[in-house]
Amino acid sequence: MSCPDDAPDALLRLVLAGGATPVRRRLLERHGTPRAAIRAGAGAWRAAGLDETQVGALLAPPPEPLATGRDWLAASESHHLLGWNSPDYPPLLRDGPNPPLALFVDGDPTLLWRPSVAVVGSRSPSAGGRDNAAAFARALTRAGVVVVSGMAAGIDAAAHESALEQTDGTTVAVLGTGPDQAYPRRHDRLRERIAGKGAVVSEHPPGTGAHPSHFPRRNRIIAGLSLATLVIEAAERSGALITARQATDSGRDVFAVPGSIHNPLARGCHRLIRDGAGLVEQAGEVLDALAPQLAGCARILRDHLHEPERSPPGRPVHGPLAGQTNYQKLWDALGHDPTGMDRLSERTGLTTAALSSMLLAMELDGRVSVEHGRYCRKG
User: Fold this and answer.
1) What are phi and psi of 278, to 5 degrees?
2) How far is Cα 76 from Cα 225, in angstroms, rounded to an integer?
3) β-pairing, 116-120 with 146-149?
4) Where does residue 19 fall: left (phi above 0), alpha (psi -120 to 50 degrees), or beta otherwise?
5) pLDDT tens-digit series, residues 32-69
6) Distance between CA atoms of 306 and 261, rounded to whole angstroms?
7) Residues 181 and 209 sit within 8 Å (Cβ to Cβ)
8) Rounded Cα gap, residues 162 and 154, in angstroms
């Protein structure tokens, strides 16, 4: 995937121009593609609101960052640059406040369209908090939900690692550095694993190091990509609370796990709950609360990938869908008693990722109900 009209250089130049993002988005809106926006010239750039620093950077792009960006994009087929006006840009993020002009993605960019939940919290969690992060991430990925986090130490890392441990688990890391830089540096191997099985995302060009101002901006992307944000442990002043606030600003759900009144890392969660966040004790409660949004995301993803709407078994299937056997196999594996994803995978031989998509389609059709991550026939 790349930007429209196969001109990643033009989009890269717009990214490297820096400055206010809304005016660069306006330039893209007016001219349709990055290449057309660059060709429009300095007069059109100024008319769109670009300042003289941005105009100068477009006329003479910084050579070293430009070369680094070009080399990174050419280095691997898994390296992508998605412009704000690209059809591949994730729709949830596009609809949020101040979406990035572009996203550098190392890994599978289609994961940014999948139903996802952000799991965030303290960089220095308690042992119980780390266990909770792993347990929630494990259950969410087994239900086919992508776990999004910031690859920081503590809760973030525990959530990513737990998702990676699942056979079909997927996770997205949003960085406050370039997509090729791990922060903290000891997470370089974790970054590689996430890129190999999921996706690493950044609005910053390759080669960009960490800076304190980058992390609140990173948090808005974490919140914007996700249907909801789950806070596991957070002190009263915590970056996780910034992510939660940005999720609220984006119109997304916020959930928090309560803790001991004697644990200072529970105070941020308790404050969120007092302010209206959902109190949750297990992942099934998150999944139940998000069921309508999860179904909607599945439909959007099918449309984006040009997959046909699937009719569940038990009803006639006509045309090109006739003869599909996996839905019948799944229907036969379901009973009237709630059944977990692992058991359904054992009964059908299908992966949890495939089952998740199929179950969402069947739920949309009114044939399946889900409670606490367990599925059964409806009616």
Assistant:
1) -75, 130
2) 24
3) parallel
4) left
5) 999 999 999 999 999 999 999 999 999 999 999 999 99
6) 50
7) yes
8) 12
The predicted model gives 102-116 an average pLDDT of: 94
Listing DSSP states for 253-293 in one string gives: EEEE----TT-GGGHHHHHHHHTTPEE-SSHHHHHHHTHHH
How buried is residue 231: exposed, middle or buried, by Cβ count under 10 Å (0-12/13-18/19+)?
A: buried
C-beta of residue 331 within 8 angstroms of C-beta of residue 313: yes
**Phi and psi (nearest 5°) for 41?**
90, 170
Q: Encode pLDDT of 157-195 as tens digits.
A: 999 999 999 988 899 999 999 999 999 999 999 999 999
The amino acid at 237: R
Q: 3-class SS at 311?
A: coil
Lay out the sheet containing 374-377: strands in order across.
339-340, 374-377, 368-371
Q: Which tokens is 364 given?
A: 């949309």
Of 61-75, 115-129, 312-326, 341-355, the poorest mean pLDDT is in: 312-326
Instruction: Give yes or no for residue 306 having a pLDDT over 60.
Output: no
Q: What is the helix (H) or strand (E) element at residue 148, kind and residue range? A: strand 146-149
The span from the CA of 224 to the CA of 222, in Å, is: 6
Which tokens sit at 323?
């003869």
Which structure tokens are listed for 272? 């969120």
pLDDT given for residue 354 in this prediction: 72
Strands 368-371 and 278-279: unpaired
Element (H, E) at 11: helix 8-16
d(CA 49, CA 24): 8
Q: What is the SS3 string spanning 74-130? A: HHCCCEEEEECCCCCCCHHHHCCCCCCCEEEEEECHHHHHCCEEEEECCCCCCHHHH
